[in-house]
Amino acid sequence: MSQGAKKIFLIGCIVIPFLLYCYYYYSQMFKNAPYRFADFQSIVLKYGDGDTLINQYDSKTGRYQYLNNRDSLVVTTVRLRKDDLQYLHGKAANLGFWNLPDDMTAPDSVRNQGKKKSARYFLEFNYKEKSKHVLMDAAFQGNEKMLGTAKSVVDEVQRVLNDAEARK
Questions:
Q1: What is the Cβ-side half-sphere exposure of residue 36, based on CA atoms within 13 angstroms?
Q2: Of 22, 25, 130, 132, which alpha carbon lies 20 to 30 A from 151's?
Q3: Domain 37-167 CATH class label
């Protein structure tokens, strides 16, 4: 066999099937991604001190209730634009929100050490067939990177909410 024939045989038997397999594998993987923005439905954010999650937002209804500086409950309607929702979805994907455990709470003895109870957050991204939620405490004593990721996503949702409320 000549050198040219050997190269053609090698390309035909190894390289081309490998490239076809990579194309098939990754196209199926992207097509069946678990959390796609095309399937996105809503975001739910609840937060507060201790077990009382009085501050709440649901993007499906637009209902946003929170305690203001004077401890009075404010109930308003805040609608997020599609761009805002897409930004939050992308931010959650970039930070690895989908890989976080569902429960990142601290034991009651740790949470209630001081006079003031630690902050608790509940964040949920809802999709057509799946949803991802995380319940976390500010006093969580687990992996610091996971806590930082969860806190970053919550902070970003709160920032986008505040911006949307200011636009109104």
A1: 10
A2: 130
A3: alpha beta
pTM, 2 dp: 0.74
- CA dist 120 and 80 (Å) reads 23
What φ, ψ does residue 119 adopt, rounded to 5°?
-70, 145
Contact indicator for 123, 150 with CB cutoff of 8 Å:
yes
CA separation for the pair 19, 23 (Å, rounded): 6
The kind and range of the H/E element at 42 are strand 40-49
Say how many C-beta atoms besides its own lie within 10 A of residue 128's C-beta.
10
DSSP state of 132: E
Is residue 149 a contact partner of residue 119, using CB atoms and an 8 Å limit? no
- Determine the distance from the C-alpha atom of residue 82 to the mean position of all C-alpha atoms in its chain, rounded to a whole number: 16
